[in-house]
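Hey,
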Amino acid sequence: MRGFGRDSPAGFLCYPAAQAADITAFKAELVPVGDDQAPMVEQSNEIVRRLNRQVGRAILPEARTLLTETGRLPSPDGRGKMGKSRGNAITLSASDTEITAAVAAMYTDPGHLRAADPDRVEGNVVFAYLDAFDRDGDAVADLKAQYRRGGLGDVALKRHLTTVLQDVIGPIRERRAEILRRPDTLRDILRDGTARADAVTRDTKGEIYEALGLFAWAKPSGDGRVSRVAPEPAVPRADGLPGARSLREVRDAIDSIDRDIVRLMAERGTEVKRAARFKTTTAGVAAPHRVEEVIANVRSLATRMGLAPRIAEAAYRPMIAAFIDVEREAFAAQQASDAEGPEAADGPPAPP
């Protein structure tokens, strides 16, 4: 993998799923991307198809890519694509001076020494930007013809591109500066957009949870068994946006379990330290029955909170097992400390 040797960063594995979540949370059907991101949209569709097959119905739509005529912009130096992290981007806040400097440094054919010499248009970064930003397509076609037959120098060509980019970026830069002068308005826009997006994505998540049977309400029967029932319908919000009262109650229940688990683990941690003084081995501290003891409490808490015990157990078992492993280490450390005696902690006694 380029730049990472034999390592495989988690981001390469998690990013496609995270991007799929960004798309599917809003049930997007048309996604504007560059052509280098088109495979990510298809990966999202693969996840959507898998989920729809799993639940037996089309709960999420597949998305199509919306590509521009210019799929991607090359970097000004002609090496790969333009990117802010690489320091070769022309930003929307760039000044006229910065735009001029960036265009002047753009890569052109080093063999094109004289304006009268004919040259190729293909692979020329300047023409790639003209194709993307010059609205006068006929003028660009004329420039290409002149460049191919000779008679057009790189300096004159770059001067024309500089004017085009300044005309495009100038109004955007001014509008950006105007918005930044009103930070309260900007925060209000972001807050309102976040609230609307949160309502939509929570509604989508609720539909997926219901379709998969996740966090469904659990109803104890007379014989002590727990049967799963459908979640309660969402209550409409006063502002007209989609509501999810049942999901909020689920989150409250999960938070309650989290608090009880933390309290339970804290109590066990205290017991372990006390027991360390009277035990001779660490076997009993992290024995399997200890894990099952805590899991039994989790299932009991889940039932009391109206959640499916099996789902709660699957969610909490790895965490509990890891915590008890930590208990084992704490137990061993406590025993080692007791074996050394108080002098190990306080240092040797002072000479008489």
